[in-house]
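tool=predict chain=A
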Amino acid sequence: MTAPLGLEEAQARLLALAPQLSSERIATEAALGRVLAEDVIALRTQPPADLSAMDGYALSGDAQAWRLVGESRAGLPYSGVLTDGECVRISTGAMVPPGADRVLLQEDARDDNGAITAAPPPPPGRHIRPRGLDFHAEDVLLTRGTRITAARLALALAAGHGTLAVTRRARVVVIDSGDELSADPAACLPHQIPASNGAMIAAMLAPLDCEVNRIGPVPDTQAALADALARAEDADIVITSGGASVGDHDLIKPALTEWGAEIAFWKIAIKPGKPLLVATRGDCVILGLPGNPVSSFVTAFLFALPLLRAAAGEHDPFARTQKLRTRDDLPAVGPRREFLRAVEADGEVCLAGSQDSSALTALAAADCLIDRPAHSPALPAGEAVRVFNLRNG
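tool=predict ok
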């Protein structure tokens, strides 16, 4: 029997299989959450001219007093050229007229019948945003593989881009399987539990802006699984939950084989989440997650999210980590790397509750995962541990 893979090796092998999605051009204002398929190169300079950073007076040269000769407003610049000793009233964001070399704050100015004085006068360059302060035309502002946030969307617009080339949305099918699952959470018989994994996984994928089609809950029969997989013919990625273990009714492997998929690898040396399965069918990647809800969540976090990011072409598909001190004593770890559900508070972490792989209460309370290497000794409170932040995953 092949030994379970380590986390990083399994992640690397999975991402090497990631489908290569084509690109499309869409309106920049519709690009939030999408991943750039091309660099964004500035088509204009920002600001396009010297602008005032404050409300006040644009002054020309050193003087005891400056003669007020006009006004420059945002969107309505002064049309003339200032000479030494002249000034114009100016508003924030307005163009600094030719000849002006500084801006006097409104609250520091005194207007004596059109003669503007200040004590002391501002030095040259004060309160002026020079042309190109932010960027110049032909600067590379965003690189291919960058996911568009609200601020990046604004930057692309400011750079003159009304459209952007982005990776098309991945088509993802999520299949929830298990005889014990009830589609109606309000109508469970004693031998049933509400089907929650499919909805949970779809919610985890939502920030990645992919097209998700949920199927299930699907009974634990070969025929039902075959029917569900047949409905995933056009998927780029198929994610199953349940049926990937070794029990008599864990039928994902044979169902995938019957569908024409090839198993790439199976079983990962992590806890929770050992029975993770990866397969391919043409360009489609199939990710078989365990059925226990915590195991399903953790493996989706560690594998499904990076896979979707890699398929979209993101630079760094993995979640960031940090070192924090633990408030709790942590037990020794066995042969599998463990991910403990935890809560961060005041720069420290504490366990969120029960670490059983079915305990949704602790998972719902958690905002991070403590990463405990295999064979780690018991760790006393106060020691630093590596933590995955679930809020940036």
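The first strand starts at residue 23 and ends at 27. The first helix runs from residue 7 to 15.
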